[in-house]
Amino acid sequence: MSEYILDLPVSRDLARSLKLGDTVFLRGDAVITAGYPTHQRLMDCVEQDRPPPVSMDGGAFFHLGCMSREEKGALRPLYVNPTTSTRFNAFMPRIIEHFGLTFVGGKGGLDDACVAAMKKTGCVYLSILGGGAPLLTEGIEAICETGWNDLIVQFRLSRVRLDMFGPLTVAIDAHGNSVYADLSADAKARLPDIMRALARDRSIQM
Amino acid sequence: MTIGYDIIRETARTLYDQALKRIPENSKAALEKALETESSPSARTTLEFMIKSARRAEEKATYVCSDAGFPVYFVKIGTNARFEGDIKSAFVDAFDELVRTIEPPILKFVTNPLTGERSYHGKDMPHITWDFVSDDDCIDITCSPKALGSGRWAALEIFSYPKLEEIERYILDVSIRAGSQHCPPVVIGVGIGGSFDHAAKMAKLQTLRPFGTLNPEPILAAMEERLTRAVNKTGFGPMGTGGDTTALGVHIDYASGHGFTPVAVCFNCWINRRTRARINNDGEVAYLE
């Protein structure tokens, strides 16, 4: 397991070189949203082959909610925090492939169909600590632009500039390996043993 | 002396504000204790990051998590408590006041389930559970904001004459289904028996029980101990990226009922948001958590 400071956007080769468990800090621009309606609109863009209001090609796209305040004509980031990525499982394979994303992220991971799309595209999933708002926010330098501003603030498609944003953990690599799939499979495989231990403990304790 | 509308509104607002900006002391202690036994280096790093995040939020008076969720209150009213004014409105108005004044502003999380519309307000907001306590002269208020991260994974199933083994298997199944997604290490609340609604309420109330308190029912105390061990053998770990610490505790309550036995399981994420205060008849407020 290694630790990296990476400048966005990263090349597909670099994305493919990252391994499960690696720690990453990011600098540069990423696109974020926490919105379900935003994903529906992104899918419309994919299906109608038209660009979203904020460019995502080849870049990083994170499931992050952000609160900002307008000051002197610019948006000042107040705080960010990840949301659960699996809520967007149905949309993500096509979004990953269409925009050729190299990084996606949030918390809780993505499903097998997404992992397959990431393998095909050369894309990595980065786990962001849920409940790390005070520390993660220190890594948000600026909000550069926002699109779909009719949506509530955390749903807008926003391009943010990161400066040492992290630590993030490589939880799905670009080769089809997922800690989420592995841990679920391990837990299910371990269940008979766990049940046997419970039965033994029950007989001792009762 | 009486407990007035203004003091209840101010206390309810303060409880919600504080619940978003700090984590209970016993939760912090449980995370520190988990660090002593966690064997995975990356899981230890995550636990340390969590503790650091909680400290930083308190220093900066900002949020540990940006998801304020929606406000949930549990109110216990002493039968000798005396009120002046509309205490139900005090909670509704407290939420309005919080939304107007809290810094930094909270995001819109109150969701209409029929339209998907998000707002700061909505039907039946805040969620309040009222209860009575005999021979007490205060009002005891617990605030536990509920968000999507861990809220989404709660489950309930109704069994007929289940053996303990069947109940314990169900608790594990629900925990494995939640897997990496409920921001572990979690507290798991379980309600066994009673009716459909009562089982769910018991499970929720058990998530509010401080870590380190012993269940007064020996059969449940033993069950809590072995289930905590069992859930931690699943290996999901802090933030679900692997490790020994998936649950900081399993807390269980039960109620007698009929031959059908509901089993409800719910989760609070590692932040375990919870604040509590008592207001006496003389208007004095004591913040307990």
UniProtKB/TrEMBL annotation, chain A:
<dbReference type="InterPro" id="IPR004647">
    <property type="entry name" value="Fe-S_hydro-lyase_TtdB-typ_cat"/>
</dbReference>
<dbReference type="InterPro" id="IPR036660">
    <property type="entry name" value="Fe-S_hydroAse_TtdB_cat_sf"/>
</dbReference>
<protein>
    <recommendedName>
        <fullName>L(+)-tartrate dehydratase subunit beta</fullName>
        <ecNumber>4.2.1.32</ecNumber>
    </recommendedName>
</protein>
<comment type="similarity">
    <text>Belongs to the class-I fumarase family.</text>
</comment>
<feature type="domain" description="Fe-S hydro-lyase tartrate dehydratase beta-type catalytic">
    <location>
        <begin position="9"/>
        <end position="182"/>
    </location>
</feature>
<keyword id="KW-0456">Lyase</keyword>
<comment type="subunit">
    <text>Heterotetramer of two alpha and two beta subunits.</text>
</comment>
<dbReference type="Pfam" id="PF05683">
    <property type="entry name" value="Fumerase_C"/>
</dbReference>
<dbReference type="GO" id="GO:0008730">
    <property type="term" value="F:L(+)-tartrate dehydratase activity"/>
</dbReference>
TrEMBL record, chain B:
<dbReference type="Pfam" id="PF05681">
    <property type="entry name" value="Fumerase"/>
</dbReference>
<protein>
    <submittedName>
        <fullName>L(+)-tartrate dehydratase subunit alpha</fullName>
        <ecNumber>4.2.1.32</ecNumber>
    </submittedName>
</protein>
<dbReference type="InterPro" id="IPR004646">
    <property type="entry name" value="Fe-S_hydro-lyase_TtdA-typ_cat"/>
</dbReference>
<keyword id="KW-0408">Iron</keyword>
<keyword id="KW-0479">Metal-binding</keyword>
<keyword id="KW-0456">Lyase</keyword>
<comment type="similarity">
    <text>Belongs to the class-I fumarase family.</text>
</comment>
<dbReference type="GO" id="GO:0046872">
    <property type="term" value="F:metal ion binding"/>
</dbReference>
<keyword id="KW-0411">Iron-sulfur</keyword>
<feature type="domain" description="Fe-S hydro-lyase tartrate dehydratase alpha-type catalytic">
    <location>
        <begin position="10"/>
        <end position="277"/>
    </location>
</feature>
<dbReference type="InterPro" id="IPR051208">
    <property type="entry name" value="Class-I_Fumarase/Tartrate_DH"/>
</dbReference>
<dbReference type="GO" id="GO:0051539">
    <property type="term" value="F:4 iron, 4 sulfur cluster binding"/>
</dbReference>
<keyword id="KW-0004">4Fe-4S</keyword>
<dbReference type="GO" id="GO:0008730">
    <property type="term" value="F:L(+)-tartrate dehydratase activity"/>
</dbReference>
